[in-house]
Amino acid sequence: MILSDFVSPDSAVARSVNLERDMGDEAALRQYLLTGKGLEIIDRLTSGLNGERVSAWSLTGPYGMGKSSFVNFLLALCGPGQKKETKIARKMLKNKDIQLHDKFQKILTKNRASAKGFFRVAATSSFEPINRTLADGLHRSIVKFHTGASAEKKFRGLFSDIEKSLRQEIIETQHLTMLFKKVGKLSGVPVTIFIDEFGKNLEFMARHPAHGDLYILQTLAETSNIFLWVCLHQAFDLYSSGLTSNQIREWGKIQGRFEDVSFVEPRRQMVRFIGKTLIRKGNVKSLNNSVNKWAKSFQNEISRSDLTELKFPEMENLTRFYPLHPLTAAILPELCVRFAQNDRTLFAFLCSGEPNALPRFLSTQTIMPGSGHLVTFGAEFLYDYFLSSANSVAMGRSESQRWVEIHSLIEQSKGLDPFCQRILKVIGLLNLISGPSGFRASERMLSFAFLNPLDSDVRDEDEDVRKALQVLIQKRILFYREYADEYRLWEGTDFDIPSAIRKRKASLAYESLDKVLEHAFPLTPLIASRHSYQTGTLRHFERHWCSSEQILKKIPKCSSDETDGLILYCFGRESGLEIPPDRTENGHPVVIAYSDCEEQIQEMILEAAASKLVLTDTPELERDGVARKEAGHTAHATEERLKKHLSDIFTPGNSDVTWYAAGRACELKSARNLSHLISELCDETYSKCPVIRNELINRKSLSPAASRARRELIEAMIINEAGENLGMTGTGPEVAIYRTMLLAEKIHSLGKDGRWQFVVPEKGSSYFKAWNLITKSVKKADNETIEVTQLTDALRHPPFGMKEGPIPVLICLFLIINSDELALYQEGAFIPYLASEEMELMVKRPEFFSIRRFAPIGIQGRIFQIYRNLLNTSPVPGDTPVRNATMVSVVGPLVQFVNSLPDYVRHSRALTREAQNVRHTLLQAKDPIRLLFTDIPNAIGLSPFDEQESVSEEDVKEFQVRFRTVLAELAQSYSGLIKSVKMVLTKTFGSGGSVRSLRAELRKRATPLIRKCGDKELSPFLGAIAGASGSDEDWIISVATIVSKRPVDSWRDNDIQVFSSRMHDFHKRFRALESVALAEKNKPPEVGKNKEARWVSVTLPDGKTSSDVIWTNKSKKRKLEKELAALKKRYSKEELEGLFAMLGEHLLKKTA
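and the corresponding structure tokens:
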């Protein structure tokens, strides 16, 4: 009897699904195996139908994973209730999950679709625009499902519109969207759209971005009662090669409308599928009995050999897998997923006619009913199948090199006996999938792999396998990893890894065990989840290894300021610990887990740490790839074994571990209990920390974007307190931080006067306790400075535990609200008014800054009142009146006033001595109290105002008069300079009238000369005096700046004389040019066209000056140049100068 007559695969199960072909096919539907992943997706659809704001999903998974089969099932599930395929699908769902079935039915009823079902559109994409795929699917859906007189009448117009669209070369997105909306309206039920192989549409769009429009997916996803599904082999953005950055961003927006579902079935689901596919035909009792014995023998061997890799529920009934060896059935899914095309390769192996597939084996093997002999498809045959058929897929993957190496080694062993070659193939497969799968080529597993319990020619498999392994090891084809109990194909190396590990262990034995463990295998922090969620502040506990000796000496500190607590995993030899401290030195809570397991773990720790050192710190491995790989395997295996052992010991719930927290022993039964415990400790330890629900700002280290947002927020706080939202617009991160920290807590609110202002946090505010800390700290300093770092440190540590991100915002808020009574110092120097530059530096270097509070009383209070009155009535500028007699509200405007004076005033010595003294005092101000009560009185010739000495009323009045006079002098000094400049101008041009009339006159005279002037100095001067824009003062300043070649506000005292002299020179040159221009304009006819005017002036020793316009003949220029050359040869320079003077006098006398 041929084996295929007894057992064969159900090809209907393995047939691939095509939505357009198989939608409504009952046979294809019955063969579908509904999995946990499918139930999860149906539950998501149910939530979407129930109002959740998700209506588009992308199923993303590798080739052959069963996405199309699931979508086909989903299509049937959404069909009309009377349809047979819909009844089948809903029954399958009910059998699998009755609660989900009832929930789905309830939603159908709610959407009036229980009987009618949804309007289903199914499409399989081609290399074409998405609009055409959707239009084809809609057309096909109407043809297939909506027939009959009433349906044809209802959809007649729509059907005609669709056919017209399909005849067009480009299908408009807006029109197609309208058609889908019309479908929903006509059908009266939700519309479900399923697009299989959607990647082909994306590939088309990437190749031809101008010939399609993905935007329709967004419009459909945003349309109510339309639900959209697409199937992909990879994410959207992986199809976008060749697109511009703008197009990629647009794709990203569309992708954001879809909820992505990873469609990857677990391996064990594939094991169940194998058992379902293999069907036994007929009812041959003797063969069925033999299969039952065959399965029972394997099951007994699995238990006897304790093969944990094969102990899982899907392997309990081994009869389903005959004729596949149990090991073959167990490792087949792993090979399909890692080295082939998932379910597709599994179907091919089970049902195809490929040379080494299962059907070929079934058709070539014979069995005899009643003989008790059964043939088995062993794992070695699986190696042959994947090598010949499926490995072409693996060649494109990173794992392909391992296939090549293993196959090369097996090919080189052709001379061995067949049994050894079979063992090598099984070991090769197990080596390929070792690691996460849990399978390894141990001697027990290899003996099991060649077990055939009903073979009439039974050998002692264990002995045969053992002998074959010895031969292969002797031939250096295999080697044995003792630490992992695993055989691997030999690759060849001379480096002695065990010896290197022993040497490293010997050196590590002298070090403390906790330091070895901490260095080699550090632990990751543990987050206080519940506390972090409720408070908005992410808190985590460092985790470290620690010996009992270290605990008795001193609790270690947290290694980072960012850490909020400490968990110590402590080991020792004693049976218990005394109650250890519950806090570190800086107040962080401590949790300790203690176990007396030091003797158990010592050898494992040294072995693992030594293996890791060999891998990372052995120069020989750099040149020996084989040894390096083997050392890596060794290090990984020993590390995993140690981690598992330590995890088993210190897992909460282990009775061998005692947990200590809050100064007492406590019982933890689960990891959730531990998380709950550290959250409770955080609640107690950081009870005064403000609640800040903004992860951008509420952290220790901010991202560049968050830092920029904080900087912009602080700047807005300083300059725009009175503005709504601090003058910020939009929805940027700075606005989000403002709304979270300031607006939500009502710290920035609208006052009764209609102006926005900052207010002190009230008692109910989460900032109240932190605010009190800052206030009390500043008051406690009692007129002494307090470092800003002292405040930030107090806020960072318990009982506050604030992160560094929001602290500068809180400090800035405190300085703004208390600006009238706080002075800010930078490196000891007084800063009279807070600016964004100082706050920006404070954020980076808080150690540079300190704060001081002032509360003047007595005579100093009276003097403050005088200062306040002077500032409100004097020419000192300010944004708002000074209402409160406080130190900073006085000092700030004074210093700002003197700093804003023109440079001329800040350097002028033309001021009175008192004005110069006050100016110098304010510019050099370092201490506000000394400035107001000592330095300024001294500067105006009065004694300091001391609380210890009496001050008469006359002294107070005299101070008021003198200081007011000095302020007025400083404020008016620059105006006096402008008046002097005006006098020079009017005197030079001989104007006795107003500046306005002088400007009009000069503009009239200078404008015609501008185009004629080619002198680089005179031309700007002409432009300045002819200027018509600006005020008269602006005109005076412009002319003075051009003449002096220096801005007027930066002049020094002697520059007015320099200006007067240069102005006189410019005036003469102006007059000369004006005379030449006038002569040219009024040239007499007898002068002739060839003559040009020149202005000549000669001043004699007695001061007499003669000047006039003379004319030169251009036609005689060459002749005169020759005469001049002759004169230069005949006379010296001195003689030529004398001749020039005499000639000038002669000509001017003659013309006169």
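(Above: one complete record from the training split.) The radius of gyration is 48 Å.
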